[in-house]
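Residues and backbone
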Amino acid sequence: MPYTLWSRNRLLGTSELAYRRSFPRLRVGDFAPTELGEQLMPIILGVGPALNALYDVSERVRREQRKKGIRRSRRAGHPAEVKRTTEYADAMSAPNELESLALELRDQSGAVVETDSIWLQDTYRLLALARDELAEAEPDIDFDDFREAWEPEPPRYQIYVELPGHDKWMSRAARRRNR
């Protein structure tokens, strides 16, 4: 059954949400954006890359501070040098930009599906990050050798939908594991 993703009554794309279910109340699938959806992908996907960039800047500043003998607790928050960067501004504004889209999932009949959260991933970006890490760890291995020539390219985007109750189930599962 095709589901559709909307932002303020504008269609952004479709998904079957057909991946095998690994957790209760979590649905995942390939996502095919419309032209508008493709245009909005930098906002929809922006939180993850913004946080990664902020992490990189924060780690660089902390290393520089350690070289100077400055020790800071991570609980102290970001140093002033980090708060003055564009990476910090981007990471702080990305969630608000995404929230302003008011994403909603609709079923085949057009009815809104109640969700706790909706997020998307760029699989090409994730593969590029994996290639970079692999190249650093094992420079002699060609990541592209793992994919057979006849295999299709993976879908560009994936959508994740948390239905109400998913967080509670995950919390209970974590408590059971920690006993």
In short: The first strand starts at residue 3 and ends at 7. The radius of gyration is 20 Å. The mean pLDDT is 85.
